[in-house]
Design goal:
This protein is 40% helix and 14% strand. By secondary structure, it is α/β, with parallel strands linked by helices. Strands 1-2-4-3-5-6-7-8 form an eight-stranded mixed β-sheet, sandwiched between helices. The longest helix has 31 residues. It is elongated, with a radius of gyration of 28 Å. The chain starts with 25 loop residues before the first helix and ends with a helix.
């Protein structure tokens, strides 16, 4: 039999498979791992520090949080798997995705809600005086006694757990007013502009509304009240501002009555800014200043960066704010 052919001198022996491709650059793998680790750390940090705010706010933020975690874990899997190095547009695309991931993580960290603190969680409990109903998009406080035909729709401040306003608004429900606290997506009231119309449709027993809001929520409440004050069905008859003011001049367009409640020690919506808003509101607007109150005294969510230092207790500030609110809303009962 003829001899089997031999490999030519200097040639590589046949192995039946192509040589293993060279791995991608180490710096790209390490960058991916660093971004992924940051995402996992931010996920844990948010849940450990603001669990209540995440659970009781609009579900949009929780969805973003879970997406960030899944993407981070997928990035760990990608970075640890051996794969051929990529050049050109594929490597640029990979770096671009990592940059987007960093932006996502920063956004999620910035949007972390400020969780409600006592006495707000206790005020969320139904009892013989008030029934409390909570859904993914709103909180409703209803008095057990004779119901008023005037309801209150309230927009929380930016990134604040909506439950934080339960204690300050509960006296309104005890007075017979249906109180609806919106849960804006991502904690930004601008994302819940249609919520007032949805609330009016869901509560046909309420024939007129006072629209209120705290800080940024007040800015959005101004827009909602201004657009609904001339409606023939369930109009906005009142505007209740907590440490807030309009973004523009509505002195001639708004027909609803206005009550502006602010704090003398507010470092965010300062007394000077609130006083300057008189020119943008109707001339008959009522301005009530709570002496010694700060920006964070209008809700129960703890101190806030940039705010002033209150000189009265939280309970004292809350009681004064609630009393002024009830006095204002009660004027529409007759």
């Amino acid at each position: 039999m003829p001899d089997a052919p031999t490999a030519a001198a200097g040639s590589e022996p046949a192995t039946g498979s192509a040589p293993a491709p060279a791995p991608g650059p180490a710096w790209l793998r390490w960058l991916a791992l660093a971004v992924a680790a940051t995402g996992v750390i931010v996920f844990a940090w948010v849940l450990l520090t603001e669990w209540g705010g995440v659970v009781h706010s609009h579900p949009a933020y929780g969805i973003l949080l879970v997406i960030m975690l899944v993407a981070s874990l997928a990035d760990v899997w990608w970075a640890r798997r051996p794969r051929p190095g990529r050049t050109g547009w594929r490597r640029v695309a990979r770096v671009g995705l990592l940059v987007l991931g960093v932006g996502w993580i920063v956004a999620v960290a910035w949007l972390r809600p400020l969780s409600a603190v006592e006495p707000a969680p206790t005020a969320m409990r139904s009892d013989a005086a008030v029934e409390v109903e909570e859904s993914p998009t709103q909180i409703v406080l209803s008095g057990r006694g004779e119901a008023s035909s005037t309801g209150v729709f309230f927009q929380p401040g930016a990134l604040v757990d909506p439950r934080a306003y339960a204690a300050v608004l509960r006296p309104l429900a005890e007075s017979g007013h249906t109180v609806v606290i919106a849960k804006p997506p991502l904690g930004i009231a601008f994302f819940s502009l249609p919520a007032f119309d949805s609330t009016r449709s869901a509560h046909p027993e309420v024939s007129q509304w006072v629209v209120g809001g705290h800080s940024l929520g007040g800015v959005v409440a101004v827009m909602q009240a201004d657009s609904a004050d001339a409606d023939t069905v369930a109009p906005a008859v009142g505007l209740l501002l907590y440490a807030s003011y309009p973004a523009g001049d509505i002195s001639d367009s708004l027909t609803a009555s206005v009550e502006s409640i602010s704090g003398s020690e507010d470092g965010l919506s300062t007394p000077a800014q609130v006083d300057a808003s008189r020119a943008d509101l109707p001339r008959d607007a009522i301005f009530t200043v709570i002496d010694g109150a700060s920006h964070a005294n209008f809700g129960d969510y703890g101190p806030q960066r940039g705010d002033g230092t209150p000189t009265i207790s939280r309970d004292d500030a809350r009681n004064q704010i609630s009393q002024a609110s009830v006095q204002f809303v009660d004027t529409f009962n007759g």
